[in-house]
Amino acid sequence: MSGPALHLAVELDGDGAHPAAWRRAAHAPDQLLTPRRVARVAALAENAGFTLITLDDGVLPPGAAPDAVGRIGAVERAAFVAASTSTIGIAPVVPVTYAEPFHVASQLASLDHVSAGRAGWVVTEEERPEAARAWGRPLVADAESRARESRDGVEVARALWDSWEDDAVIRSVATSRYLDRERLHYIDFTGDTYAVKGPAIVPRPPQGQLVVLGRPDRVPAARLDVALVEGRDPAAVATAAAVAGTPRVFAEVEVALDTPRDTASERVADLERHAPWRDRGRLRHIGSADQLVALLGELSRHVDGVRLHPLVLDEDLAVLSRLVLPALTERRLVARPLPGTSLRSTLGLQRPANRFAAAAPAGQEDAQ
After folding, report:
1. Is residue 52 a contact partner of residue 9, using CB atoms and an 8 Å limit?
2. Distance from C-alpha of 115 to C-alpha of 179, rounded to nearest angstrom
3. Could you give the CA distance from residue 134 to residue 355 in angstroms, rounded to a whole number?
4. Residue 224 CB-density burial (10 A; 0-12 exposed, 13-18 middle, 19+ buried)
5. 250: which residues sit within 8 A by CB, 6+ positions away?
6. What pTM value is reported for the model?
7. What whole-number distance in Å separates Cα of residue 311 and Cα of residue 12?
8. Inter-axis angle of helices 35-48 and 74-84, to 10 degrees?
9. Which ranges of 196-334 would DSSP assign to H, the alpha helix?
10. How many angstroms separate the CA atoms of 126 and 97, rounded?
11. Which tens digit of pLDDT belongs to each residue from 142-189?
C-alpha cells in the first residue's frame, strides 16, 4: 500500500463499459470519435481529480452492429489528450501479442515526453484468432503463448527505455555533438519468437520507465508497477491483492450509479434490452453514489487504487465528479495529482536507475 490516499483511475474508451452505452450518450453517434469529445471527457476526469485515465484498444473493432464498432488508436488518443491536460496520468491499452515491441516502446516513450512524464501502459492480450489475420501474423493460440508474448514485450520495452542513459543527449553547438555514443546501449534481447538488438530511437522517457499496469496472471509481477486485480466481491479482491506481488495494486470495478432521472438498476435494465453487459469476473457496483463511496472506503484497506469502468460515461462520470470524488476527498481517502509531478511520483513510485548506467565499470562515469 502506498499510503492513505486511494488512487482512482477511470476507463474512457467509447461511450462506456456497456456495449449499448451509446444509446444513452449525451451526443450523437457520429460525435463519438471527434477530438472535441475526447478532450471534453478527459478534461472532466482531470477536473474531477482522477489520478489516471486509461484508453482501451485492440486491432479488432470493439463491438458488432448495431452497437459502436469503431475507435481511434489508444496511443494516438493519449497523445492528443496529453496536449490538452496538465496533471492527470494517461495510460493507453497496448497489446503486444502481435505488435512489434520495438515500435510500442518508441510510441510509449514519445507519449511520456509529450505528457512531461504522465504516461503509463496497460498491457493486455489479443485473444481472438481474427487478430492474427488482421496483423498478418501466425496465430498465438493458447494462453501460455500469449502470456509469453506479453512477458517478452514488456521486458523488451523496459530494456529499450534504458538503452539511452539520461545524459546521452548533449546538444553541444560548440563541439557539434548531439549524442554521447558511449551512453547508448544495445539490449541484445533474444526470446522464443524474436530478437531485438536496439538501442531505441527515442531518448529515455522522463520517468525513466513508464508506469506499467497489467494482470499479474498474464505478466510476471516483477515486470509490473501496478497489478490490476479482479474479484466479484471485496473479499475476493482483497485475496487477489494480497498475492499480487507488485509495488501497487488497483482493483477493477464496474459502476452504474443512480442519476437524477433514473436509478442505476433502471439504467442497466434499459441497456440490457439491447445487449448483455458481459460478466468479466469484476466487482460490479449498481447503486447510489453514497454506497460507492462506502465500497471504495472498504477497498482502500486492501488496494492502492481502483480503476472504474462506468456503465455510460456521459451519465456516470458526472455523478462521480459531483458526488463521489468530493465525498472521498472530504474523508481524505483520495488526493488530487499535483501540477508538475510525474505519474510515478503521484503513485509513490521511485524513478528507477538506468540498468546500463548502473552496470558501468567503477570510475567510468567520473572519467567521462
Report:
1. yes
2. 23
3. 36
4. buried
5. 7, 9, 213, 226, 227, 228, 229, 303, 304, 305, 306, 307
6. 0.93
7. 11
8. 60
9. 234-242, 264-272, 289-299, 313-319, 325-330
10. 6
11. 999 999 999 999 999 999 999 999 999 988 888 888 899 999 999 999
The whole-angstrom separation of Cα 62 and Cα 324 is: 29
End-to-end CA distance of the chain: give it in Å, rounded: 40
Strands 7-11 and 169-172, how do they pair?
A: unpaired
**Amino acid at the residue 315:** E
Q: Which residues pair with 190 in a beta bridge?
A: 195
51: its cell numbers: 489520478
Residue 212 corresponds to which cell in the numbers above?
506499467
Cα 285-72-123 angle, rounded to 5 deg: 60
Look at residue 298 and give its three-state secondary structure: helix
pLDDT along the chain (368 residues), means of 10: 77 96 93 93 97 94 77 95 96 96 98 98 94 93 94 97 94 86 95 95 97 95 97 98 97 98 98 95 98 98 98 98 97 92 97 84 41
